[in-house]
Every structure is written in C-alpha cells, then in structure tokens.
Amino acid sequence: MMNKKINIPDNLPEDLVVEILSRVPVVSLLRLGATSKTWNVLIKDGRVAKKHYDNNAPRRPRHSLIIMLIAFRVYLVSVDLHQVYNNKVKIISQFSLKDPVYNCLKEVDIRNIFHCDGLLLCTTKYNRLVVWNPCLGETMLIKPSRFYEDSDIYALGKSSCNKYKVLRINHYGYYPSVPLLLECEIYDFTSNSWRVVGKTSSWLIQEWKSCGMSVNGNTYWLANPSKDTSRDFLLGFDFSTERFTSVSLPGDHRMYDYLIALSVTREDQKLCMLARRARRPTIGDLWIATKIDSSTGAASWAKFLSLELVGKPVSFVSGINFLLDKKDNVLVCRGKPGASTYFLHVVGEDNKCIQMDHHDPKSTCSLLVNYVPSLVQINQSL
Of 95, 102, 218, 361, which sits most exposed with the smallest number of CB within 10 A? Predict the structure, then answer.
C-alpha cells in the first residue's frame, strides 16, 4: 500500500474517513498526514490511532486499556469490568523505554509518568525528563535549563493551536520551615528551550497530590493556599494563555471539607473529582465536570455517584489514584500499599468492592492511567 496512491473523496462522512485511514499501515499513515490538512487533523486527534490499534490487534480483548507503573516499568493492561468476578488483571505488554543518552540497550527506571493524548512524559529514577510515544516507540530527551530536582512537578499539555508544551513547577525552600516560592517554567518544543512564566508563593501542591490530570490539553491539580494547608482548592493551568486559575467547585463548596482525588473519564475525557462530605465524613461524592472555562475557572458539575469511604480495602486518602468508568458506574482504585496483594479494587454504586488479582503477588502498582494510543510523531509534530 505504501507505493499506491490513496484517493478518498472529499464528501465522505468523517467516520468513514477515519475507518479508511485506520486500515493504512502506520508508516504510510504518517506520510498521508502531510498530504491533507483534513487527514492530518483526524490522524492527530486520536480517533484514527485508536481505531488503527483496534483493527490491528484482533486477538486482544475489547476491554479498557490501562497503563500501570509497576516496579519502575510501564505496562499496558486490559481490564474486563463485565467479567470482573474471579478475574485477574491481564497484562498485554510491557512498554520498554531505553536509555536515550548513554546506553540504548539498557532499560530506564521510570519514577513517574504524566499522560496526555497518548503521549507519556516520564521522569526517570535519575532525574531525566523524557517524552515518549509508546505506540510508535519514539522518545525525546528534554534537557533542563539548570538541573531537575526530585520535588519538581511536571505536566505535558497542548495549546489551542495544537502546540505541545511542558510545564515545570520548581520548589524553592522547604515548607513549613522556610517560605515556599514556586517558579514555573515552560518548555517550548519549537525552540527546544525553557522560559520562566511566573513565580508565586500564594499556593502549593503537596507531594502526594502532584499527579495532575490532563483534560483537553490543560492540567488540573488539588492544591492548597500556602497559608492554609488544611483547605483544598482545584487549580488549573491553561497551556494556551500559560496562566493558572482557581476552578469553581460543585454546589456549595462548604459541603466538602476534603477534596480527595482527581481523575479523567475514559470515553469523553471529562475531569472527575472525589470529595468527602463535611457533615458525613464517611460518605464521598464523585463529580464530573461537564464544562470548564479554562480562562476564568468557571465550571459546571454533575454528580456521578456517592460511596462509603470506610470499611473497604481501599484507602480513600488524599491523592489516591483512581479511574472512572461511566458505562459500568464504577471506579477502579489501587489497593492499600503493603496491606493487600490485590492490584485493583472496583467500587460500584452499590458500594460493593470487587478485588482484581495479578499473576505476580510480589509486584505492586504505583500508578494507573487510562490509555488511548496516539500517532503523534514526537520529533516532527510537537
């Protein structure tokens, strides 16, 4: 097919064009993106990549695809929520990240990952920063303006004109003994350089809340005012304006004394928030942001479900990592560290907790994120 010209009529429905493009080999598909602006948009927005992945992996189950960080390695995992009873977590494959600098045959220990549009921003065990497309096997090492530190917080985002950027939040001082100053830098892929976009001492993101969530190219965290660490608020960063904004909370914010964690829906990429009720601290409400104005922080919310926070093998503590499945009305969480050999726990609207096991009882999962494959070329498209 690489040597044949592909003619797709201009008047075909978009879904049919996606279907046709998904049948093209990856190498040819990437070349086709340069011949048509319309095709290029469809290829980059993720739909063609996901369809291409499904078409070329017929033996793999059509379950939710999740990326797990297990013992400093990234794994692609299949979770079947329809047959969850007596079911084990099925590891499909391991994504192998090789050392992009010193030894291309040596695997790198990955400390943390940030997921945006099928791309992974990885921080390694020895404080390197790597952008990685595991679907294409492409990597790019990002050099620091000075040096990276363990306390740095990173996010990969995208502006309204589809330009990817990296945000780095660098801590100066150690709270609470010294006043904390945060310096924020943006890495521009066009110039391959960092630039400072602001400094603040008015808020902070604590270490256990540092895993931000990417929604429509922007990133959100649970943060605290630096003078009142007991009060949480929702902080957003707009990669188009390169500004932080406080996002409005659902209903009367006084209803909740504790914002537990954030997540993103798999199907339509909506921000989710789990919050504990102030008057009934054993109950948590899970909300979905139906709309967020990234420039003003105004948000509309819809309650998804309520659940009991106690009496389960899951620790509903600040920064807990969870996934939301709207179709099955459940959330998927990691088990209590050191207290359970079960990898995942599935909690539904009936408040029952179903445990999902793994073939290796010695392994532990430190992070899980939804994954949709991407055909974005790191060295050319960012």
Answer: 102
Tens digit of each residue's pLDDT, the chain (382 residues) = 344 555 566 667 777 777 777 777 655 665 666 667 777 777 666 677 666 656 655 444 445 678 888 888 888 887 776 665 556 677 777 777 877 666 677 788 899 999 998 899 999 988 889 998 887 778 899 999 888 988 899 999 999 888 999 999 998 765 555 557 899 999 999 889 999 999 998 898 988 888 899 999 999 999 988 877 778 899 999 999 999 999 999 977 678 888 999 999 887 889 999 999 988 989 999 999 999 999 899 999 999 999 888 877 777 888 788 888 887 788 888 765 554 556 677 887 776 776 766 656 566 677 888 887 787 877 655 6
Angle made by CA atoms 195, 199, 203, in degrees to the nearest 5 = 135
Asked if residues 353 and 313 have their Cβ atoms less than 8 Å apart, the reply is yes
| Paired tokens of 111 | 């400390």
Residue 41, SS3 per DSSP: helix
